Amino acid sequence: MSNFPFLSVLTVAPLVGALVVAFLPRHRPELAKQVAFAWSLLVLVLSVVMWVSFNAGGDRFQFRESYSWIPNWGVSFTFAADGIALVMLMLIAVLVPLVILASWHDAESSKRSVPVYFALLLVLECTMIGVFAAADVFLFYVFFEVMLVPMYFLIGSYGGHQRQYAAVKFFLYSLVGGLFMLAAVIGLWVVGGKTFDWQALSQVDISTGTERWLFLGFFLAFAIKAPFFPFHTWLPDAGGAAPAGAAALLVGVLDKVGTFGILRYCLPLFPEASKWFAPWALALGVIGIVYAALLAVGQNDLKRLVSYTSIAHFGFIGVGIFAFTTQAGTGAVLYMLNHGLATGLLFLVVGMLISRRGSALISDFGGAGKLVPVLAGVLFFAGLASLALPGTAPFISEFLVLIGTFTVNKPVAVIATLGIILAAAYVLWMVQRTTQGTLNPALTEVDGMRRDLNLREKVVVAPLIALIVLLGFFPKPVTDVINPAVQATMDDIGRTDPAPAVGGTVQEAAK
Amino acid sequence: MTELKLPSIDYAAIAPILIMLGTALLGVLVEAFVPRRWRHLVQLTLALLAVLAALTMVVLSADERIITAGQALAIDGPTLFLQGAILVLAAMALLLIGDRSVERGGAFVAQAAVTAESADDRRQAEGRNGLTEVYPLTTFAIGGMLIFVAANDLLTMFIALEVFSLPLYLLCALARRRRLLSQEAAMKYFLLGAYASAFFLFGVALIYGFTAGIPGRSAGVDFATIHAAVSDSPASPVLLFAGMALLAIGLLFKAAAAPFHVWTPDVYQGAPTPVTGFMAACTKVAAFGALLRVFQVAFADATWDFTPVLGAVAVLTMLVGAVLAVTQTDIKRLLAYSSIANAGYLLVGVLAPSRDGLAGTMFYLVAYGFSVLAAFAVVTLVRDNDGEATHLSRWAGLGRRSPFFAALFTFILLAFAGIPLTSGFTSKFAIFGPALEGGQAWLVIAGVLTSMVLAFPYLRVVVMMWLSEPGESTPTVMVPGGLTSAALMIGVLATLVLGVAPAPLLDLAAGAAEFVR
To answer: Which residue segment(s) compose the domain that B291 sits in?
Structure first.
């Protein structure tokens, strides 16, 4: 089964589905939803089969396929997945069906075509899978840019308040980063001997000055995408305006392209420059953790609050990547997965609350738990997962990042730990103001607030809760896949983990 | 008296030129002898057939690499490629010019001499059939362009410049509606164009003087002589530099590069939209074809001297085009500034001194020509009772009214913005790659930065069409007849195909990318 062209099929399948859905008659929205959902389940099944046939102890890159595309420029459709990409592909495959299910009625409130909304979601899935599966820098860039288009229309056509502004800001920010990357991609192509193949390029020696410029080009694009402080200002607007399902994908998956890109492209292709820039990147990460957490505390808009928490979490991921230890790196990749699950859940739940209340403002809620106890409970759980409570999956990743960083850079680890405290503040205070305390009398007059979670919504949240708890106690299946890939990345930049201090004393004692 | 020796002429190689000019003359006869109600059909058919015949001849002589007609015409890879490009794009433009379903009577005025805004003028605008002289004019222009890209000496080039410019000045004045704007555009284009031609001619004279100043060599303005003179000139290069500068002004004017661009927005706006499309696509190909030949053949050994200057012009052009595009409120003016910025990108390609650079520039010209013609095809469709509704505010909510055409236009705009899987991206890559390789990193960075700025106006149009609510005054999109639909679909498909599978055309361009000297 391992000869099956998983990655290309996975990339193309959602696109075919999108075409089918888009051409369904507009007056049969239910049919469009069902087809889209079934299609995304098909992709999920295929992804699970791929996960099973991935050999964790085997080659770094598996499922490699290559087809010629533009031979004049050395461009080919090359797909390959390492453990990191595999985990992200799995996350996409899990999230998309849940998002489709959660967005069942979202598109109806707008005047736009319902089938198009679901078609756009499937197009987005295609580009997201492509961007993680690509092993050709040109192909990666193509997906990286094309990804903007469906997201732009999802935010702009189906979003809420200020959607036009948010959509344009999102598009322009990403495009600016992308164009810097384009310059760097062309530069890499020229110094790399006119090939775009990742494996060939990772063998190329580049002069120090050029390498630093190329690193900057790539890093800037990824830092905007992730986003890291100070390139983050588009995310709260986009996350706040996007429909909840699209926002979950935006923050849960799309932004991971940034951190994934740093791991896959910046570190292995420009190892010297990565080490040279690492202190700066660490500083950006730490500032992001504290700054975004502080801003999150002050938010009154639920979706913007969740967006800011994400920026703080991306600070953690950035710190984990640039600490250059296997522990921190594994933690960072695990964080990418767990953050996708936890924040995805949080966005979806918040979306359910908002659609019931008809407002995203925290001050419009108060004591909602008395009306919708199950929903409030799920929100509480999602909040706890987001603040990395022990027993939930994010705890493990955050902990790995912190201890991995502590061994090499104590001040950064100590400041980053502050972020945990602030996380408790923004999550708990948000939960308290929305679901706890005295019941806001205005809430009882809203019809929606009398309906607790229905079956569809329970089906949406249950798998995410189960995964968060399961990975919180038993992350081994995932770490087994991630670890070799991270180890290989660390080898690429020539860093080995510092020997444990205990080992040193044992050796001394042996003398 | 010595016997006059006739130069040998390879008639097969220059057949495309002869066909176009011959058809133009035939078109004049058709005006005189064919009854009025048949003229439109006869002229359009004649012009299209001529373009097809010329294209066939270009394809048949694809492997020709000669200099013929004395030293006057060079039929080589770039010539044939660019002639093919001009003919294909001209065929699309002819489809737009010949369409009479979108506007009753066509996009051209019925009686150009009627006082603008008078009662007569209003009557003619209501649907009397437009002038059919536009077809001979267009075929003359195409013929001139075919000579322009093949010209191997500066005098032939000058004559070709006039042959294709004069019909264009006239065509600009023939818009059916907004006559004053159209006449103003033609006047402006003519006056400034005449200046540019004068500069060019003066440049030719100086270059002749430069070659004449070298002892032991014969003077001349054919490119081989100039090249030889440049490469071992003991004389002072003042004449060379002055001549080069004046020639460049003449050519950059046609290419719409800053600071010689000021005519572009007014002319693009005032001219009948099909003619605007014709100019944006074909004139660009012709102008850059000539630029490439002059600077890479005649002045090839002066690269160090002209690169900084042309580079500065390129940066300025990109900046002016991108920044001013942001402030535009009229779709035709916006596309005009976008075409200025694209001239800047093309100049980057001209300065990439390699076969790849030449191939990339030629690829860019074709890709851009297809997209821009499709864009202007859409512009002809969005109209109300007063003709085309070009003000951007009127396009609000167009995506709701006519999603199909709005989607096509969105795709073209994304191509202009350089999003992958469109020809806009592959063509940028085709130019920036060789430029970076040739050590012109600063031009590439300027190109990337201006692309960012330029993305904003395109995006604003997309926002207007899709994310704004339709207003009372949102015009309808006409369902186009066969001719405009064909042109539009060819343009959009080419934009897609050249973005997804550019390899065949790249191969073709790479195979053609060598001048004969």
So the answer is: 15-512
